[in-house]
Amino acid sequence: LLTEVNKSSVLTAGGGTNWEDGWYRTFYNADGTLQDVLPERVVFFTDGIPTYDRQNQKADTASLEPPAILPGWPTANGSDYNQTSFNRTNYIASRFRSSVDLIGVGVGGITTTNVQWVQSQGRGYHMQWERGFHQYERGYRWEWIVTRPAKGKKKERGYWSKEYGAQPYYDGWESTSGGDYNANNVNSGQSDGYRVGAKQYSSPYEDWEPSSAPSNSNASGYRNSRVYTEPYTDFETQTTTSATGNTVLARLIAGNDFGVPINSDYSNAAEADMYILSSWSDLVDALQQVALAECGGTLTLQTRVNGGPASDPFTYQNTEVRDSGGVDMNVEPTVVTTSTRFPTGTFDLPIPSGSSVSVDIEPQNLSDLVGYNFGSWSCKSGATSKTITQTLIPGSTYKTLTVGVSANEAVSCVMNVTA
Questions:
Q1: What are the Cα distances from residue 207, in Å, to 181, 187, 213?
Q2: Helix 19-27 crosses helix 83-96 at what angle (to 10 degrees)?
Q3: Integer Cα distance of 110 and 243 in angstroms
């Protein structure tokens, strides 16, 4: 059974609703590793929407993964619905939804709650002043280009030209664009004619770096830009839709908006994965139906000595289980023991037909019970007495109990003895 965890590290009333920590502790160890044995069924009880997650409060020292933190989403405040808190919980639930039977039980406040479901969260950002600069340079060498060779008294004619690229030496360096640098730079040195020089805070502004605000906000070479890292001072526009608390719970349990709601008469308990209860007074019945849907039917035994609980151990075995037609179902016999520490023992009875079975229950440790005298068996289903058969065990004064158990029925029986 899994309940949502409040903001305190212990399960006491104290504020926000932390779905994630309860789910985390169901499937993971305190150090963040997956548990060796996973549950076959998880029943999640909650009366509220998620308003906290393990980023706010957690009951172990493990890291915050899984899942990874969603960057740029608003953090939970403990009182309002928080999409990050749901998403983190859903990350865990979605990992096990196909292999573990998940059941959601929403009671009280969650059944009347409406939230703003975030379909798309605007990224978080803060404003940062930046100063522009350039620093890429390309080298050049002056070379005399002859246009008319010298002849006779005529002088040679030509002009000086800057030659770029790899040169045997460089007469100087000049600014160039980042595009030119990236396209032609082929090594980390400058033999290829390109290098990263000192930052020049003048046009063209190829790169930007964080800066304090200029004295003149309109000064050239400065800009105030959104930086999508913490601390977040604002968020881009969200896309939201309205959703009920019941829908939010269904999306966690079933991965859709509805799941399989329980019928008002509990007739589909075997398939239902959503129990929405407007009143806490309905919780007991819902719990019973959840349990019965798992096992078909239950038979719980008690032992009473002179009308009070028995202190000595009494052991019982379901020696045979028959279907509604009286045919042995070949159910593997199991044993339960009642004692001071464990005053009741329960047999889970499979009822695949959805009808009923009859079961034989026989006391086992008769040699240890010589100080007691058998009285009688009695059985009830709720407040109604059950018809039973008592058959004497050969060589003993104790009797075998035979009682019928229907699908989705919880039967309780008492063996009365005297000392």
A1: 13, 21, 17
A2: 20
A3: 11
| CA-to-CA dists, residue 85 to 12, 25, 252, angstroms | 20, 15, 12
Enumerate residues 6+ apart whose C-beta is below 8 A from 92. Answer: 20, 23, 24, 27, 66, 67
Beta strands in 283-339 (DSSP E): 297-305, 308-309, 314-323, 335-338
Give the list of residues 6+ apart from residue 100 with CB closer than 8 angstroms, or none: 38, 39, 40, 41, 42
Q: pLDDT above 90 covers what percent of the chain? A: 61
Q: Would you call 291 helix, strand, or coil by DSSP? A: helix
CA distances from 60 to 10, 57, 72 (A): 11, 9, 25
Region 202-208 average pLDDT = 90
Question: Roughly how many angstroms between the first and final C-alpha of the chain, as a whole number?
Answer: 39
Provide φ and ψ at 250, rounded to 5°: -65, -40
Enumerate the H helices of 131-259 as residue ranges.
Answer: 178-184, 245-253
* pLDDT per residue as tens digits for the range 122-156: 888 999 999 999 999 999 999 999 998 888 888 89
Both structure tokens of 209: 């770096």
Distance (Å) of CA 21 to CA 8, 16, 54, 74, 363: 11, 12, 6, 18, 44
Which has the closest alpha carbon to 332: 294, 296, 365, 359?
Answer: 359
Give the phi and the psi of residue 366 in degrees, each rounded to 5: -65, -35
Query: Which runs of consecutive H residues, i.e. helices, occur in 256-360?
Result: 283-295
Tokens 């600014």 label which residue?
175
pLDDT tens per residue, range 336-390: 999 988 899 999 998 877 789 999 999 998 988 888 999 999 999 989 999 999 9
Max Cα-Cα span within the chain: 147
Closest CA to 234 of 223, 243, 225: 225
Polymer length of the chain: 419
Which residues share a beta bridge with 175? 137
Amino acid identity of residue 401, one-letter, is: L
